[in-house]
Write a structure and sequence with these properties.
about 160 residues, Aminopeptidase, 7 strands, about 30% helix
Length: about 160
């Protein structure tokens, strides 16, 4: 039997020098990407901003807003070449841990109806739809609604 080396995964705080790679992943993933300036503003604002590295290379990132007992997943992304391997689930679990550690009892996010893979991931993690935001996202043919999802942490 041939031993297959498992990749080394590390989750760490996003740094200013990561913004170029993060912006590159964002542009490769979305038709209407955030700008590097928006990511920089998130760092300046102190939003919990994290990168997922595999063997030292950034393959994903996630940004939260946390306050008043709530967290909001602002942006989450995995390198298109690395999708379908469980890295999105790993990243989301860590973001949920970070939200909990920062005092959140509930976590919100928005997702496009045209992104069933993300919807399935969020549902499998315990999120459920609580509403819609009409015309929330830019789209090639005007605007697309957002599905608003929430997850409550168990009370201990």
């Amino acid at each position: 039997m041939v031993a297959v080396a498992r990749p080394s995964l590390e989750m760490r705080a996003m740094r200013r020098e990561d913004l170029s790679r993060v912006s590159e992943l964002e542009s490769a993933s979305y038709d209407f990407p955030w700008t590097m300036g928006i990511f920089g503003d998130c760092l300046k604002a102190g939003h919990p901003s994290w990168v997922l590295c595999m063997d030292g290379q950034i393959i994903g990132y996630g940004i939260l807003s946390v306050g008043a007992g709530e967290a909001h997943v602002l942006n989450v992304c995995i390198d298109p070449e690395q999708r379908g391997r469980g890295f999105g689930r790993h990243l989301m679990r860590r973001l949920l841990d970070i939200a909990r550690w920062n005092g959140a009892d509930r976590v919100f996010l928005e997702v496009r109806p045209s992104n069933p893979n993300a919807q399935a991931l969020y549902t499998s993690l315990g999120f459920h739809e609580i509403g819609r935001r009409p015309r929330y996202y830019p789209a090639h043919q005007g605007r697309e609604d957002a599905i608003v999802m929430a997850m409550d942490f168990p009370v201990s």
